[in-house]
Amino acid sequence: MSTGLIILLIVIAAVVVLGAAAALVVRGRGRRGGTSLKRRFGPEYERTVALHDGDTEAAERELAERLERHGDLRERPLDGTERQRYADRWTAVQEHFVDSPREAVAEADRLLGELAAVRGYPDGGRYEEQLAALSVHHADHVDGYRRVHRVAGAGAGGTSETGAGTEELRAALLDARALFDDLTSTESGRHRASAGKDRQAPPTASRSHARSHMPWALHRSRPKES
């Protein structure tokens, strides 16, 4: 075998080895990226994968794009007066639910959109973009906003407010409360997302006051009066 042929074989073998190594590196980075996204987005990751019919790569591309667009967003803090004002408005929404469930849910939807905009997220008029930004920083609870927005929109069709309709409205409002608590907290959304269920304890006196006035109608069906 000539020296030239031996050198050629060595070069080919080296190219094959380098190619395999590069493929392993890329694959490893993809796995790490997926793990990071799953940890960052939590339930929103699973929801996005389901929306893409189980296509994990497509879901991760979408989530990575959200992170690229909104990951650097810094929430504007609320002062004590603002926090109390929003807590009082949410309490009023809950009280309104007793007599007008659908109107109360629509109010909650508008209030969340306004509050998110005040905290520095895209304006509520750009709902999808606002929701995408919220999902980056409040992944554990953004679906509550999605749900209350969907139910509030469905209410425009004139669905009955009794029976199962009222139960759906009640559940949506209760789910949305978690995001409201996040947005009125003094802690950052990213830290709260990692805290899981431990974050449910109210950190401020104003939020404790608001919770103490949560109408009983949000927890049980109201008996029909004769």
From TrEMBL:
Residue spans crossing the bilayer: 6-26
Keyword Membrane: yes
Domain of life: Bacteria
Region (Disordered): 185-226
Keywords, in A-Z order: Membrane, Transmembrane, Transmembrane helix
Name of the protein this chain belongs to: Secreted protein
